Amino acid sequence: MTTSPALGRRDRKKLETRAALSAAALRLVAAHGLDHVTVEQISEACDVSSRTFFNYFASKDEALIGGDAEIGQTLEMFRALPAGTSVVEALRLAFVPVILQMEDHRETISLRLRVIADNPQLLPRLLATGVESEMAVAAAVADRLALPPDHPFPAVAAAVVGAAFRVALMRWATEAPGAHPATLAKLADEAFDMVASGLTEPPLRTSLQ
Amino acid sequence: MTTSPALGRRDRKKLETRAALSAAALRLVAAHGLDHVTVEQISEACDVSSRTFFNYFASKDEALIGGDAEIGQTLEMFRALPAGTSVVEALRLAFVPVILQMEDHRETISLRLRVIADNPQLLPRLLATGVESEMAVAAAVADRLALPPDHPFPAVAAAVVGAAFRVALMRWATEAPGAHPATLAKLADEAFDMVASGLTEPPLRTSLQ
Question: What DSSP string runs through B150-202?
Fold first, then answer.
């Protein structure tokens, strides 16, 4: 990659603005309700114009749900990994940048889960984002393995890895504060290990391992 | 199990009535819209009373979404399997009765997907059913392996197997009629094999297998 330090800073600033807009949207909606928060208010809370807001998100709901930028980043990483890396290993590594970013925004992610639970009107968009992400990962897996479009492996791999990551994410984001301060990186690694092992029963049962 | 042939017939009739009520609910909602169909109309279409309807479903939405009976049946089968059977293998076998039943109701299942897509108000209930099922499977896995409640394996196993089954089900239910007449049993088997292998790349790539 030929990212100059200057561009690196600009990209980082962009990610920060995006994260700030998401966090403000969630905070405002948690406080005032989905129908009582406008794009103008979210933008004002971050001291940017609505026009700037729309450079990052197409709608208020998108700012609340997120997802698109994360999956783009994950796929870029996935495609950059050498062909010799297995699919599970490549997916595991591809999640690392997003995981590290999420570690810095645990509160926002917990708040997002609460806002979604309180506002089921957001579910269609959440599900649509989930389906799109899964299809994008499946397409990248099919590309990597040069599989025909109707081969079932890419869709299963995308769904399974996504499910394992979701379990790790939920565990991490909903843990009582201070209870078990496991990092998302550790929990995700554990879950990916289980997938890579074909769900081999954990040591407690087999006693030797 | 001490099921007498008479009870067998009664259970079968119950399953048939349940399936008929679901199918009628979906047909009526597809034709007239979610808000224009009542429990009375669904019951009438199956020539039973509303009281009988409520023996099977707590609400119209439940009749449209289903799920509870299927997961109950799957868990009963799972618990009946000998301890020597691995978790993935036990889950694979536990899905068999429900899969065979679904094979007989492909049209209803396709219609359900269409009705859900057309009526996003059903999504909260669909997701709640999904979460409940996954938690019930995770609890059964934890029981089987005598794992402590905070062990991550059961939740990951339930989510991963559920995701693999969902991919197989979507593929089977949305296939163009007559295109590739694969059975759900075959597609689910394929998906479970991928999970059990730890998502090993398919033969096309490794060339020997």
Answer: T-SHHHHHHHHHHHHHHHHHHHHHHSPTTSS---HHHHHHHHHHHHHTTSPPP
